[in-house]
Amino acid sequence: MKGKETTIVHPIEPTYDKNSRILILGSFPSVKSREMMYFYGHPQNRFWKVVATLYKENVPMTVEERHAFLLRNRIAAWDSIHQCTIIGSSDSSIKDVIPNDLSPILETAKIEAIYCNGKKSWEMYHKYIEPVCGREAIALPSTSPANAAWSLEKLIDAWSVIL
Questions:
Q1: pLDDT tens series, the chain, 163 aa
Q2: Following DSSP, what letter does each residue of 22-83 receive, concatenated?
Q3: How far apart are CA 46 and CA 41, in angstroms?
Q4: Distance between CA 48 and CA 162 in Å, rounded?
Q5: Which residues form the domain of 158?
Q6: Nearest to 13 by CA among 92, 97, 105, 85
Q7: Is there a contact between 42 and 143 (Cβ–Cβ < 8 Å)?
Q8: Are the C-beta atoms of 162 and 115 separated by less than 8 Å?
Q9: How many Å apart are CA 111 and CA 105, to the nearest integer?
Q10: 143 near 50, Cβ under 8 Å?
Q11: What is the CATH number of the domain that holds 123?
């Protein structure tokens, strides 16, 4: 792992509105996502390819297109972690976690299902958030480039449960 340990507060606002029906939670924004100030900003992250394929749309490229895509498809997006100590973008380095408060999303939208993008997101949700909100989440395989064992085709198949 390169880089130094840094304590960071989540810099990106959640994306949702009253029409959102599913909530997708990552763990914590990568360095690239923090630079872009939007979710799944690393060019090798397959999240946007996966959801665009599932919803039969073109892959959104800009922050504005991505934001509009999520809202148009009734998807809320945020992360399980509000603040943590992390090295670079490494989920395995995450410690000193303060979870996100999902109540603004859950009180505004009629969320029918919560999905976690990857194991770390699900672990954090299960440990910190589920006991508070009382709602289970479904763990999906990570779309991160670090999850090289999963091909794009396998990810699309696994993620089809969100439809």
A1: 668 999 999 999 999 999 999 999 999 999 999 999 999 999 999 999 999 999 999 999 999 999 999 999 999 999 999 999 999 999 999 999 999 999 999 999 999 999 999 999 999 999 999 999 999 999 999 999 999 999 999 999 999 999 9
A2: EEEEESS--HHHHHHTSSS-STT--HHHHHHHHTT-PPP-SHHHHHHHHHHTTEEEEESEEE
A3: 10
A4: 14
A5: 5-162
A6: 105
A7: no
A8: yes
A9: 8
A10: yes
A11: 3.40.470.10
Q: What interhelical angle do 47-54 and 152-159 show, nearest 10?
A: 60
- The Cα–Cα gap between 137 and 57 comes to 26
Number of domains the chain is built from:
1
Angular region, 33: left φ>0, alpha ψ -120 to 50, beta rest? alpha
CA angle 139, 141, 121 (to 5 degrees): 50
